[in-house]
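thought: user wants a sequence for this fold. calling inverse folding tool.
action: design(structure=
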């Protein structure tokens, strides 16, 4: 057997750079590079190996967490056909990646995490940053990755890599099981040499399969659709990951069935397609939520039915409602007692289109959907142009961004009050033009996420919609964007705290307690003193961005035009009027209210809550 004597870390990188995926006859190099930060736990192993493998580029980030966000966003924007590996030292560098791992796994996005680990040899323990246990020597902080990883392994001996790596690739390239994969790498073993079989380093192409549905289930699904009078499609992220938008357009156009979109599925149809009713659920449009309420059949495609999609199980009120779920994951396909089509979205949709040539929804349904859509578009126009005197409303900022952006541009966001507003209002024109991380809704995803989207397709301008709270959590990847020349346009909405959680708090009778940025008051001892101001322009500038303050809507529009002409990351800071929120549209989100309280406002909220909860259903 031909062998190559290299360190474990060198072998790992030698393997990674030869992994490819194939879908629809096209091959893609799977790993674009390695993101991370060096410390004593990876510098001599992975760090040394990266130095002698410049064809696997190393990108230094400012926080290991955002390295993982960048990788996840890159994978999402690449429809899971490419990703990055992420390297960290041991201890805090490793645990910084846990939030990113959870985000990737929840959103079903492939990322490979390579945290350094304590010495396998043990004789020098406890090493710097080691978590000790009096009960066992076989534990450490990297065990925390287990519940947030789809595959987890620790490489105690260099030869274990040979059996671990095929499992790593199987999981990362699985349309149903992908998520974070963690290989914990003890720092001494990273540097150990071994005679690896040459075969390990040959080019390998992993086929991303397009699974076909089971025939019996398929016939039952066709029957159910044929029998339905008020069907509704719920398009989830799986539509985009499968690149099934053309297939969905064909199916919806042929059958006349309206399409509602989840956060991950938004953009499955262009917003102006006749059957596109936009967002569904707690942050849904009136059009989609009305049809969902009455639907007798819901065809869920690539959706997890999160509580925002199901409006906490209140979205579908027709007593006779049934579900057909198309999903690569059996786990999701069986949700809500559906007829499960465990299959690739594009394949299943093509087959359904062929089998349902004789089916079309009735004229009343068509008229209702068209009228609801027309009213909704008018509502968006109204919210985009409120002509609010003084500071603009958030919906006007969204309108200005939409008008400034081109049809192929990408909008990135994740947490705050704007994901709800954007879900309703953003008019997506091309698949992947709307990049919302709402599985984990993780503050601090936005900037590295936008960088991942930009790296995935540098021909698209990438806009970030960001709150002041999120900015303060982790603005530092701006430095990385400048270092790498990855230009993004950040619109930072300053509303002096958490409009989202503040609004939620008020709706729960808690008056916004602890959600706005204020000095601690000497009188009350609470955070209700003078407003705390932060100079975001100076801050962004200090990190290397071009920064512009926009005092009103006209200045915002001007700044957006300016940002397009620059080749450097630009931060536009705009203050908004928080009193001008976008309303909800016949929807609900279950956030449990205190059952007993000293405050009358909380007791009132609890009473309203108990009434509202009665609409929650089991779909059995
Ligand atoms: C890491 C993380 N911590 C906490 C939360 C809970 N959370 C959701 S939105 C939000 C406030 C965000 O504030 P900001 O970015 O200013 O947006 P705004 O609510 O003002 O629109 C918080 C704290 C979260 N989603 N992620
Ligand atoms: Mg805010």
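)
observation: tool returned 620 residues.
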């Amino acid at each position: 057997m031909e062998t190559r004597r290299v360190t474990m870390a060198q072998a790992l990188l030698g393997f990674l750079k030869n992994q490819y995926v194939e879908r629809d006859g096209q091959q893609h190099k799977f790993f674009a590079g390695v993101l991370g930060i060096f410390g004593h736990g990876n510098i001599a192993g992975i760090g040394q190996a990266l130095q002698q493998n410049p064809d696997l580029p190393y990108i230094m980030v400012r926080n290991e967490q955002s390295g993982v966000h960048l990788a996840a966003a890159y994978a999402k924007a690449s429809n899971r056909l490419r990703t990055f590996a992420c390297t960290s030292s041991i201890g805090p560098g490793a645990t910084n990646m846990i939030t990113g791992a959870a985000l990737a796994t929840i959103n079903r996005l492939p990322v490979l995490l390579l945290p350094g680990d304590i010495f396998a040899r043990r004789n020098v323990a406890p090493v710097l940053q080691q978590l000790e246990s009096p009960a066992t020597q076989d534990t450490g902080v990297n065990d925390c990755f287990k519940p947030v990883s789809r595959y987890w392994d620790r490489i105690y001996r260099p030869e274990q890599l040979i059996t671990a790596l095929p499992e790593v690739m199987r999981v990362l390239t699985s349309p149903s099981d992908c998520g974070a994969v963690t290989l914990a790498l003890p720092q001494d073993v990273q540097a150990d040499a071994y005679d690896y079989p040459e075969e390990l380093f040959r080019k390998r192409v992993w086929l991303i399969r397009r699974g076909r549905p089971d025939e019996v289930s398929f016939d039952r699904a066709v029957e159910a659709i044929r029998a339905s009078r008020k069907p509704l499609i719920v398009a989830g992220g799986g539509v985009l990951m499968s690149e099934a938008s053309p297939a969905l357009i064909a199916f919806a156009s042929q059958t006349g069935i309206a399409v509602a979109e989840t956060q991950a599925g938004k953009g499955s149809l262009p917003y102006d397609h006749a059957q596109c009713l936009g967002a569904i659920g707690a942050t849904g449009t009136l059009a989609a939520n009305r049809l969902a309420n009455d639907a007798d059949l819901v065809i869920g495609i690539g959706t997890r039915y999160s509580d925002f999609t199901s409006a906490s199980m209140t979205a579908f009120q027709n007593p006779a409602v049934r579900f057909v779920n198309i999903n690569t994951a059996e786990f999701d396909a069986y949700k809500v007692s559906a007829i499960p089509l465990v299959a690739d979205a594009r394949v299943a949709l093509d087959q359904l289109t062929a089998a349902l040539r004789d089916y079309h929804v009735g004229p009343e349904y068509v008229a209702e959907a068209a009228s609801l859509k027309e009213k909704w578009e008018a509502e968006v126009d109204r919210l985009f142009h409120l002509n609010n005197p003084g500071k603009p409303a958030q919906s006007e900022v969204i309108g200005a961004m939409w008008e400034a952006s081109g049809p192929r541009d990408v909008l990135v966001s994740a947490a705050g009050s704007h994901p709800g507003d954007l879900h309703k209002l953003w008019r997506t024109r091309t698949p992947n033009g709307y990049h919302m991380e709402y599985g984990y809704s993780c503050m601090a995803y936005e900037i590295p996420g936008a960088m991942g989207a930009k790296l995935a397709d540098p021909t698209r301008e990438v806009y970030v919609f960001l709150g002041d709270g999120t900015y303060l959590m982790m603005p530092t990847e701006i430095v990385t964007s400048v270092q790498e020349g990855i230009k993004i346009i950040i619109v930072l909405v300053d509303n002096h705290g958490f409009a989202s959680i503040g609004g939620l708090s008020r709706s729960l009778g808690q008056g916004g307690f602890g959600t706005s940025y204020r000095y601690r008051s000497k009188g009350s001892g609470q955070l209700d003193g003078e407003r705390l101001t932060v100079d975001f322009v100076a801050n962004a500038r200090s990190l290397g961005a071009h920064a512009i303050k926009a005092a009103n809507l006209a200045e915002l529009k001007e700044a957006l035009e300016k940002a397009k002409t620059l080749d450097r990351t630009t931060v536009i800071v705009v203050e908004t009027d928080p009193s001008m929120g976008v309303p909800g549209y016949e929807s609900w989100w279950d956030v449990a209210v205190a059952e007993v309280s000293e405050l009358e406002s909380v007791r009132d909220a609890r009473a309203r809550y108990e009434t509202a909860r009665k609409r929650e259903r089991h779909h059995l």
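thought: summarizing for user.
answer: Here is the designed sequence. The pocket of magnesium ion (ligand 2) is lined by residues 467-469, 495, 497-499 (CB under 6 Å).
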